Amino acid sequence: EVQLVESGGGLVQPGGSLRLSCAASGFTFSSYEMNWVRQAPGKGLEWVSYISSSGSTIYYADSVKGRFTISRDNAKNSLYLQMNSLRAEDTAVYYCARGLVGAIGFDIWGQGTMVTVSS
Amino acid sequence: SYELTQPPSVSVSPGQTARITCSGDALPKQYAYWYQQKPGQAPVLVIYKDSERPSGIPERFSGSSSGTTVTLTISGVQAEDEADYYCQSADSSGTNVVFGGGTKLTVL
């Protein structure tokens, strides 16, 4: 079964850091582009970051540029999001999502991990 | 920054046709994708590349494109189709992915 499982969410103080992980299974992880997408409570979806299958190409939304770092370990079938200088507005469910082959959509999503930034 | 515009809500009776629009200046150049999200669940892809339907998605879901507007059509709406629907695309450079604000579909 194709599956993505996020972990690492929790409560963190403003200005703090957190590292999210996404474990992939059921498909050849190294062949797929991956993304992080977030959703603040009661709000819509917001794309956060993209990484190519090899990790050589990376993009970020302006809202997280300079604070978040996306990475992957194809040997461990894992995707990561290092989040620094966290703000209250970063509070959201964070989803990892597999990129469609040759397209910019997302065909497989994890169940998400909640990040709460609060003092 | 680039934006995709959706109506906040659409309401239809069971068996009727629901149409949800999404407008954006780059849509003539970039494909659109549609996701269904039910409360407490992750989004599910229902249409990709404007009008293609993933395997496992019912035939009543279809997509179309005309100029700067794309449309998700749900024919013969069922109660289980009540959900939030999001369109998604990218800016003209293809490096910034954007979601529409979402449309809440209510089945009366």
How would you describe this structure to a colleague?
The complex is a heterodimer of chains A (119) and B (108). In chain A, strand 7 and strand 8 form a beta hairpin. Chain A contains no helices and 11 strands. Chain A is 0% helix and 51% strand. In chain A, the strands form 2 sheets. In chain A, strands 2, 4, 5, 6, 9, 10 and 11 form a 7-stranded mixed sheet that branches. Chain A starts with a strand and ends with a strand. By secondary structure, chain A is mainly β. In chain B, strands 1, 3, 4, 7, 8 and 9 form a 6-stranded mixed sheet that branches. A 3-stranded antiparallel sheet of chain B has the order 2-6-5, with no helix packed on it. By secondary structure, chain B is mostly beta strands. Chain B is 0% helix and 44% strand. Chain B is globular and about 40 Å long. Chain A binds chain B through residues 35, 37, 44-47, 50, 59, 61-62, 95, 100, 103-107, 109-112, and chain B through 1, 30-31, 33, 35, 37, 41-45, 48-49, 54, 86, 88-90, 94-102.
Outline:
Chain A is an all-beta fold.
Helix and strand layout, with pairings?
The complex is a heterodimer of chains A (119) and B (108).
Chain A: E1 3-7, E2 10-12, E3 18-25, E4 34-39, E5 45-51, E6 58-60, E7 68-73, E8 78-83, E9 92-99, E10 106-109, E11 113-117
Parallel strand pairs in A: 2-11
Antiparallel strand pairs in A: 1-3, 3-8, 4-5, 4-9, 5-6, 7-8, 9-10, 9-11
Chain B: E1 9-12, E2 18-23, E3 33-37, E4 44-47, E5 61-66, E6 69-74, E7 83-90, E8 97-99, E9 103-107
Parallel strand pairs in B: 1-9
Antiparallel strand pairs in B: 2-6, 3-4, 3-7, 5-6, 7-8, 7-9
Q: Unreliable runs of chain B, pLDDT <50, ≥5 residues?
A: none
Largest interface: A-B, 21 and 27 residues
Report Rg of chain B. 13 Å
Spatial separation of the terminal alpha carbons of chain B: 36 Å
Oligomer: heterodimer
Broad shape of chain A: globular
Helix content bin of chain A? under 10%
Q: What share of the residues of chain B does DSSP label as strand, in percent? A: 35-45%
